[in-house]
Amino acid sequence: MKIKHKLLMTFGLLILFSVAMVGINYMTYQAMESDANFVNHAGKLRASSYKMAQLANIIVNANDQESKKILEESINQFDEILRDVSEGNIDKGLSNMTHEETKVALTQISEKWNSSYKGAYTSLLNSGDKTALQLINSEVAEYVNAINDMVTGYSEYSSSKVATAKVTNGILLVIALFVGILSFMLLN
Q1: What global pTM score does this model have?
Q2: CB neighbours (10 Å) of residue 8?
């Protein structure tokens, strides 16, 4: 094979490896952005859980009308965030959840919200139900811990994706350097 053809082949390979590295970096960036949005939204779920519990106590103990309004808005916001995260709302920078453990945890969190907490908050808003307040106060920390555990598990999964992309980029870089050195050796 002529040197010209060997050089064209090695430069073609270098370009191919360069494009592969850029592609991997782009996909990793997109995944990291979606992961960050997921963690941000899950953080809002945690904060909303504590805020709603605090408002519930104010409503029952002081019958504060402004707190009722804020609690109603918070319930709607919690519903929206939970729906966005569960459905992977693209408009909010989220994608469909592929991590199985997180999907299971998210399903459990959603089911608990819909079967227990949402009804308790609604009952509290409508009638100042102290039984609902007891349920909320006794279980809010456990509920927030479930959200924390989901986020922690997902963060570890997300970190492993980034590590895999770094290793793949490193391997492609070494191969590209080897092909580059080889092409210079062909010139001699």
Answers
A1: 0.73
A2: 12
